[in-house]
Write a structure and sequence with these properties.
The protein has a single domain, classed as Sandwich (Jelly Rolls), CATH 2.60.120.10. The protein has no helices and eleven strands. The strands form three sheets. Strands 1-2-3-10-5-8 form a six-stranded antiparallel sheet, with no helix packed on it. It has a three-stranded antiparallel sheet with strand order 7-6-9, with no helix packed on it. The model has no long low-confidence stretch (mean pLDDT 92). By secondary structure, it is an all-beta fold.
């Protein structure tokens, strides 16, 4: 059994400008996983950098309100919403506040730096 407190994971700034903690990632641990799981935070008023992944991605909003943009579509999102991002989808998310936007990110197959392309600054 693996039980991992979120606070035990290092916090760092991801390539898209969100604060991230990698929770589960198969290539850094001996786990039989295809996907990676991370916890992300974005301060109120901030927008992540437009980017795309070769993998599919799912966001699950834990807290806060935001605006999700995928390709030419934009939608308001909030606590309890699940967002599917297809492989190659150009994406960014804005934290509309007043609280920090927090969400889980599931990437399948697991996230790799070489599979991410930053498009432009927000």
């Amino acid at each position: 059994m693996l039980v991992r407190p979120l606070e035990s994971r290092s916090l760092f700034m991801a390539g898209d400008g969100t604060e991230l903690r990698e929770i589960l990632k198969a290539d850094t641990e001996s786990l039989d996983l295809r996907y990676s799981l991370a916890h992300a935070r974005l301060e109120a008023g901030k927008v992540s950098i437009l980017h795309e992944l070769k993998s599919s991605e799912v966001y699950y909003i834990l807290a806060g309100k935001g605006r999700m943009e995928i390709d030419s579509e934009s939608r308001l999102v909030g606590t309890g919403d699940t967002i599917y991002i297809p492989p190659g989808g150009r994406q960014r998310i804005e934290s509309l506040g007043p609280e920090i936007l927090e969400f889980l990110c599931i990437v399948d197959p697991a996230w790799r730096a070489e599979d991410e392309k930053v498009i432009a600054s927000s």
